[in-house]
Amino acid sequence: MRVGKALPKRRTLALDRLILAMLFALVDFWALHVAATAVYRGYHAWWLATPYPADVALVFCAAVAGTTAVLIFERRGYEMPGLTAAGQARMRRRIWLGVMVAAIVIAFATKLGGDLSRAAACIIALVGLGVLAMTNRLFAAVARFAQASGYLARSRIMLVGEQGRMTGFAAAFDAEAFGLEVVGHVDAALFDAGPACRASVLDFARRQAVEEVFVALPWTDDERIARILRGLAELPVAVHLCPDRITSRLAEARLRLLDGAAFLQLARPPLDSSEVIVKRCFDVVVAATVLVLLAPLLLVIAVAVRLDSPGPALFRQRRHGFNRSSFVIYKFRTMTVMDDGRNIRQARRHDPRVTRVGRFLRRTSLDELPQLYNVLRGDMSLVGPRPHALAHDDYYDALIRSYARRHNVRPGITGWAQVNGCRGETDTIEKMRRRIELDLFYADNWSFGLDMKILQMTFAQIWRHDAY
């Protein structure tokens, strides 16, 4: 048995962590309530120009904000480990979106939805995601400061298991970052050495005021794990099983409960169901709004294309989309050809096939505007890997490993590769490899904030002359 480093005298009790969690929940409630009310009021005042339904807004906004805060609190999302874990951040987003959907359904089922705007509810859902992201960062900073200054006690934990695994666990996980303090290492063999040794372990845990125990043993050693659980049953503590070696190699491994049985999920899709809903709602709202606002410009461009050269105003070509499903992409025609076969030659600098109007449209990316229709149809997203022609997909899929993984997310009008300089012709395999690396980074690290960053960078680069 080995005791950890000496600990400073505790200035607070465990109850203080509960009080801090309750304060965090209260802040979340007011932040969500104020943001939702402001969106509701602004939408009616500036967009609809109608009287503001204060009673409906008060009930709806308070209900969704309060329910969200209570559910996050119940799932321990305001405790220190929850504030620093990416999985808990996803849990907070899922709860908020689930509450929003349930509230909208209940509102319309009870006829409260007569004064409830669907568009305002969608905007509130998106704004709420940003609010939760900001408050989560605030809470984590406050909790870290409280711990560093000694005003908030860390949860005291004890490791039980094989020495090598306990050392590996301590090295792999930053206990302080999760609000934990390791007070001792206990060899699992002590639980097999008789009642006296087990009693000494329990006495050690009580003297050290241990609140949680982490068992570092192979998951296949189920009999020894069961004996340790029986030996620790006299302690009022939570007992956790440390990740096995296979899970350390799988970043997305997590438990999933199905009908009371636990399954280990080894991988997850790039976007879970709640993230798909967020991304889709944002795509539809923005695409529909932009199409309405830019309708006169679209008409002018279409007429200019028709007058500049013979042929249709729109260019149509088959592309691969989400999960390699094919769809027809729409663009303003910028060339004298309409290639859509097995042999497609990419546009090059000073390409004679590019028309006069087409050259301007390609340079300013205005030729991409009809793809907003693809976004509304669900073929594409505003942000994602750029879809390639079917012939190019087949060609590069045979040359670049993991090329097909770019189809795990919906293709986009703009993407992480494009804002990082990978535009125009891919005349070498190295250029395409670089583009695929950036596309896969986006698929593996998607977040709503990353989409906003890409859109901002796209607008900043829209006048760059690197497309042809």
Distance between the termini: 70 Å
- How large is the share of residues in beta strands? 5-15%
Main pleated sheet: 5 strands, mixed
Give the uncertain stretches in residue-range form.
Answer: 3-14
Q: State the helical fraction.
A: 40-55%
Rg of Cα set: 28 Å
Tally of DSSP helical segments: 17
- Strand segment tally: 11
Shape: globular
Number of domains: 3
Order of helices and strands: EHHHHHEHEHEHEHEEHHEEHHEHEHHH
Trace the largest sheet across and list its strands: 1-3-2-4-5
Category by helix and strand content: alpha/beta
The whole-number mean of residue pLDDT values reads 80
Folded structure, characterized:
The chain is of the alpha/beta class and 468 residues long. It has three domains: 14-148, no CATH class; 154-265, Response regulator (Rossmann fold); 273-461, no CATH class. It contains 17 helices and eleven strands. Strand 6 and strand 7 (261-265) form a beta hairpin. Helix 1 (14-48) packs antiparallel against helix 5 (118-148). The radius of gyration is 28 Å and the shape is globular.
Short description:
The chain has 468 residues and is an alpha/beta fold. It is built from 17 helices and 11 strands. The longest helix is centred in the N-terminal third of the chain and has 35 residues, at 14-48.
